[in-house]
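Sequence in, structure out.
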Amino acid sequence: MTGQTLRAATRSSPLARWQADHVAALLRRAHPGLAVEIVPVDTEGDRRLDVPISSFGGKGVFAKEVQAAVLDGRADFAVHSAKDLPAVTVPGLALACVPARGDARDALVGSTLEGLASGAVVATGSQRRRAQLSALRPDLSFTELRGNMATRLSKVPSGGAIVVAAVALERLGLTDHLSEVLDVDQMVPQVGQGALAVECRADDAATFDLLQAVEDGRSRRRVDAERAFLAELGGDCDLPAGAHATLDAGEDAGVLRLDAFLAESGEPGAGSARHSAAGDDPESVGIAAARHLREALG
């Protein structure tokens, strides 16, 4: 392995760089002598901070330019937040591995949920988060939130809160900002939240094999079930939908349980439903949950 270098494409934000560096460290540990070069990529989602993501393509805008760097040969593989990937893999790419997953839960910064006064403002750009918080606290009002984590932390509304992924603050060493981590029973997370997804070219068997060394089988099965759920709904990461898979203790072949949420919109009073599905096959479990919720909402 001495002398071999792989190039890793990633968004250029501090969190994305942490993620790429983490995967690089895992690869070097698995393959002593392997070098990994980080290739930062500016994405449309990072450049256009003045409008909601849903207005120009959904969360896939955070992935497509990073994926393009792999497809056109500027990089050998890409490291994504799994929650930013559309559920259907782009032609020419393969989801090579999912390393061990971090905390999937959402969190509040600024106030606990109970501590928010009636009418308090909560900042979030996620329709999924708005829909579920509206169900828990119909009195809350919402405003848009975009930007990297430093920008988001600077925009906590007076007397209000922002919603973030708990794992993001953990990875950036900012857990002292956490006011409350919301249990999955309160708020079903985004598909893939807390997990990393590593893609390479579908025809690059050598890189695929190297990346497989950092695959975590249990995390992969959980993410596959959640992605199958989203794919059945249409594959758009910006849907007001969430899913969280867990595995029974034991080997990779343990029974999967998927807790899923779907809303008609992120607006207060919009119809919504939750459902739990279980089984051995990740794809079947995800599809079953999606079909049940779609039928429940008509």
